[in-house]
Amino acid sequence: MSKHGVRAADGSWSAFGSLTTKLGADTATAVDAAAVAGEFQAAIVTADGKVKHALRHANGQWDAPEQVGNIPGTPATVALTGSAG
Fold first, then answer.
1. pLDDT at res. 51
2. According to the model, what pLDDT value does residue 2 have?
3. How does DSSP classify residue 85?
4. Residue 70: closest CA among 55, 51, 42, 53
5. For residue 79, how far is the Cα from the chain centroid?
6. DSSP code string of 16-58
7. Is 16 exposed, middle or buried (0-12, 13-18, 19+ CB in 10 A)?
């Protein structure tokens, strides 16, 4: 089971919780994440070769993961980057 925690600005950590409720039950073969404009972006390559993207807002709410379309071939890795604005 995948888990996640949140690190606060003071260095403390939240309790770790299940990512399955946030990202679904897909088996991930590659994951990358980035902070973009105060929000958490995650990209996941699933065992069946799909790429999914999920967003965790600064208020702690998650958007449902969405499949990224039109990717040629079968991806094995994924990478994200962010910018300040």
1. 92
2. 67
3. -
4. 51
5. 11
6. PEESHHHH-SPPEEEEEEEEETTEEEEEEEETTS-EEEEEE-T
7. exposed
Q: Which two tokens stand for residue 52?
A: 């999914």
pLDDT mean by block of 10 residues, the chain; 85 residues: 76 83 79 86 89 90 89 87 72
DSSP secondary structure letter of residue 10 = T
Which residue's structure tokens are 């379309």?
A: 69
- 79 forms beta bridges with none
Q: How far apart are CA 80 and CA 14, in angstroms?
A: 24
- Residue 32 near residue 78, CB atoms below 8 Å: yes
Contact call for residues 53 and 68 (beta carbons, < 8 A):
yes
Give the position of tokens 């990512």. Answer: 19
Instruction: Please state, in angstroms and rounded to a whole number, the distance separating the CA atoms of residues 74 and 81.
Output: 21
Q: Which two tokens stand for residue 18?
A: 């299940």
